[in-house]
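Troubleshooting log. The previous structure file for this entry was overwritten by mistake, so regenerating from the original sequence record. Sequence copied from the archived sheet and checked twice against the printout by T.R.
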Amino acid sequence: MSHHHDNHDSTHIDWDEMSGLLERNAQFQGPLYEQVGAWLGELLPVAGVRRILDIGSGPGVLTLLLARAFPYAEVVAVDATEPLLERARARAERAGLGDRVRTHHAELPDRIDELGEADLIWAGNSLHHIGDQRAALGGFARLLRPGGLLAIAEGGLPTRQLPRDIGIGRPGLESRLDAAQGEWFIEMRAGLPGAKDEVEDWRALMAAAGLAPSGTRSFLLDIPAPVPEAVREHLVGAVGWQRRMLDGRLAADDVAVLDRLLDPEDPQGLLHRPDVYLLTARTVHTARRD
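Regenerated output below.
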């Protein structure tokens, strides 16, 4: 992970601190990723998949989804943060999948080769946290068994949860948050060990790793207003994290609006607004080893 600093902010991410947010985010996006799992099951013979690597697994929500989608496979949760792997192991035990879910602590790409062969390698929103993405893709390609599939979730659409004009502050708040987060992302990438700039043409990068691109699809998550209370609480956590992450990068009036949105007592806050929703899309790119 990055330890790069600038004058007003750090792009270092404390993944253990974020564990609860990561879990809730993955759980709310469960219907989206179930569609992903079904699609991967169309690209691979489900009964023939015996070993899966979940790269950047975090607390293991999607690890379990993969274990259910491919019931004959051992699934290995791979992450650089041991407390998240502990959560993944506990989650697998609670779900009765402890016999098929393993964990592996590793910093990538340096230790890719120790992960062992796999029929399916899933990297969900994790590749952009590896400095040398080309080297990582080359390493994943080496691990794939003949006929095996690499699937990476990168890109899609920014999450939307509010109308353009929310009646407080300047209209277009989320667009300005996107712009600030884009600058944060550039600095985060630049601070990663061995960081290399790449044109984010994932199909071309997977082909350069010796794999045959086998399809790209985007999957939608759409929870319209009014959202359940649990979604509201999750959005408070997500926006709160964004508020901290972008500290020093936003205009004072936008910060004031965010603070109102996060205030549990404010009738204009996320916990009370009738117009809050959750809409996003994730894009998954796949390639096969011949």
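The first strand starts at residue 51 and ends at 55. Archived copy saved in two places this time.
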